Amino acid sequence: MPLLRFGSMVALVVLVSCSSGCGKSGEAKTRVAFVSNNAHEFWTYAERGCEKGAKEFNVEVLFRRPPQGSAVEQQRIVEDLLLKGTKALAVSPNDAKNQVEFFNKVADQIPLITQDSDLPAGSKRRCYLGTDNYGAGKAAGGLIKEAMPDGGQVLVLVGSLDAQNAQERRQGVLDELAGTKNATGPKLGDKYELIDTFTDNTDQAICKTKVDAFLVKHQGDPNKLAIVGLWAYNPPAALEAVKNAKLEGKVKLVGFDENQQTLDGIADGFIHGTVVQQPFEFGYQAVRLLAALAKGDNTVLPADGVLPIPHMVIKRDNVAAFKEKLKQLLAPPAA
Amino acid sequence: MKKLIGLLLFAIGLYLAVFVKVPEGNDNRTKNNVNMARRMSQLGIVSLGAGTLIIAGGIDLSIGSFMGLCATVLAVGMQRQGWSPPQAIAVVLGMGVVVGLIHGLLVTKLRLPAFIVTLCGLFIYRGLARWWAGDANAGIGPGMFKRAFSEATPLGLPVEFVYLVIAAIVFYLLLQRSIYGRYLYAIGSNELAAKYSGIRVDRYKIFAYVLCSLTAAFYSMMHLAEVASVSPSNVGSMLELYAIAGAVIGGCSLRGGEGNVLGIILGASILTLLQAVVSFWDVPQSLEYAAIGGALLVGAIMDEVLRRRGPATAHG
Amino acid sequence: MLEAVAVSKGFPGVQALSDVNLTVAPGEIVAVVGENGAGKSTLMKILAGVQVPDAGTLRLNAREIRFASVDAAQQAGIVLIHQELNLAEGLDVAANIFLGREPRVGGPLGLISSRIYSDAATIMQRLGLDVSPRAAVADLSLGQRQLVEIARALSLQSRYLIFDEPTSSLTERETERLFTVIRQLRADGVGILYISHRLKEVCALSDRVVVLRDGRNAGDLLREDVTHEALISRMVGRELKQFFHRDQAATLATASAEPIVRVRDVRWSASQKAGISFDLRPGEVVGMAGLMGAGRTELAETLFGIRRRLAGTVEIAGRMIDVRSASNAVEAGVLLVPEDRRRQGLVIDFAIRENIGLPSLGHWNRLRMVDRRREQETSLMLRDKLRIRTPHVEQIVGLLSGGNQQKVVLGKWLAREPKLLLLDEPTRGVDVGAKAEIYEIMNELAKQGVAVLMISSDLEEILGVSDRILVMHEQQLAGTLTREQATEQAIMHLATGGMGNS
User: Which residue of chain B comes nearest to C333, CA vs CA?
Assistant: First the structure.
């Protein structure tokens, strides 16, 4: 019977390949792992940083991305990594609040650091490294002020408000515009007004459709409208929709991250600016810490347990240089 | 029978492939067995529900979204509304019955295609989940619920595995020993003949939809208990495809009337093991889906090619 | 002139046509009549290129022709208008008329020219089809759809049109309209072949009538000789082989019994002029005759609860039964051996045992578990009793012969307790030996007090097996014949719309 033969063949192939391959695992380098929270290309820069770190600090880095961006995938990846003999782990938790218990158990077994998104206070992670999202949000708020100094309406776009970085960035934007803490809108100070926050379930097409519809219905002066996209694909989606409505240059666009279209939009003058993180640094710094922690060296840890990776503001004047730097990063690593 | 042995050997091959990649010592191998048994049991239970429906000639594309809705209702209920676990469980099982009834009634009484009804469900339940949770994550802390559906290890086995064994026995009795099962096979093979035999076809089809939704609801409990966290926008996405794939790999025909409990469980195990192989053999992450799909396709092609070359055998 | 000369055609088990001759000239309407299975449809299919004759020749204007396909026949100008219309319902009228032969514009783009709409309008006008060429076929009535098919045939420049039962689903007005069109076509020089069960129509319309019987020519009547009686005497009039005969004593024994089944004013369709009423006595075997489409299957399905009963009552053994579903009927002891055993009677992938158990499992066991042992014993017992030729009851029924399959369908019901057994064409496609065995089973059941109602299109069978014969015509009970009254003539007289003597 076919499947029978097929099954036994698989078993055979496995046994043969294993008798040659399995012995090696003993003399491998120290294994550390870096786990993202989804499969977005943002993490490709981080992976490059990890590769650089791996060479420099002489460790093997297992880089993993949960394809659907769900907590269950992430936890299963981590479970498997533990069994593969990982000695230290950096993770960007999918659902920080509810995953504390799980990651605390991981931290009991190997050194754990968080990156990009932190676990709530009191967790057993050794250190957090990443962008101060609230600060980055404030920087984006500053860009809106710059572009629309006389005030106006603000529309916020984000994949979903589940994620902590989304909440923090949004709060930073609102607080900067309102000039107070914990601003909620719709009134933001005297000059600014929050119209709405659109979520799109991490779907660029849905994001664009929603903005399209919004621009059709919108009655106010387009010059008094700013759209801020909190996740990497939001600014390009907003730009497309604005172009669609023939309002480019009128509606003020502000974004986060370094999507190619966002950078082109800045170069063309249609997007005022973007606040970028430095994912390459996430990867590199994470591996630096992990390599040391795996050897039991805790001296690398910052005293307050937070290693901030500075954000950068990209506007028309520095966009060309920034693009060049990214291109170098994405060039395939020399063999 | 031979197909089952083939599936079993395939599963064993995959298991060995994972096993050899798990470093020795530190109880790693035992832990890995527990992890895999847990994942395999969860998928196995929902595949049993999906498979029963497929045997009766139906299909449910809303399994993943509905599971997500149930998980969300569980988490939100227990975290924000202070439901006790038994209360939350009762609500979610009730939802399973009601949603299955709605699917079944729309398919049988209004004669809407099952594909359409459950495809609409796929969207509706996802939307309801996000609305119910206010588009925010929800989760549960440690406690009786987590112990009952994930953390307990009776006889040293993950509790999910115990549930799978119970589900397997129940579904075996139902499908392969009871008259309901016989009717479901008859309906799936030839609905008209079943009707002309005086079987209340509509009633049993509705029953199959209810069973399918109930297993999805049960899955949501194990899922939430394991992960503790629910992100309403993506929890359970693609689960319906895994559940259907598990059933089909295990020998269910999408035309209906074929398949059995052991095959379905083996099919679900193979899917789980394939994922583990991809993980442990350091297949580039971007290729994960491609590798799983490719392995299944190769299996299906070999099955078909070798069947055509081999001698014709009677069904049984 | 289109001619078929000494055409023969056989199928496995049946000689459908033997040395049949037929001619039709341009501007002539020739009707072809005969009982069910007389070979009319086969002959028409051969003329239209659907089937190839085993022997004999076809000639068109004295030149021998040979059609490899329907296309080839259409090229030669011969088109068959099917009983089931073959139209693409989603497309509009013009698109259907020109389907596959659309005039194209735009070179390689292959766009369809809008000329089809004006061309279609011209043809439609000729037929008096007054709908827009852009109307969707799905929105048309049956009569209008038929005119679309005719329009399609005319667009092919057809010289000969073959109609297979064109009026079976038309209203009276639509029928009138169709006749006008057919006469118009005759005046235009088109040759018409017209198959119908309705002898009244045949008498009214045709210039000549060709009668077929058992696949042979049985008469060729000119218009002035065509009468109802003349046609019937040629359609039947064969000698009975009488290989099976119901025992006279059995008939007499049942004659005085109190009826066990009382059917009163039953209707299933709003278009029925009156409901159906009849009684059946225990132990009686009643035949139900009628032509294709007379409503016999519909009646049986209504009694069995598969088809919705619009009006009327059914009383079994003194109890009114409310048959809303087949499971109701089964509980009341009303059982049906359906017409299409592969689609309706059996789960073809199931074993004999599983098929036999299907209607009884729920009855046997209150715990709702399959009683494997009882199922096994019952099916073994029935296998022996019904003489199903198989070594074991685990055999998949799809692999059995037609006769053995039919016995399995009977077996399903013998495991229950029938009071009224309905059989719809139970011996169709069954070999002679198995036929006799099926009759024996029917007799056996009758002896136990079951009322048996057998639908059959085989008059010989009806006459041989029945104590009494109900004849249906156009969804009505046309009459009842006692065994003494029953002859092929008498049945055909009623079945073709002659006045009854019930």
Answer: B198
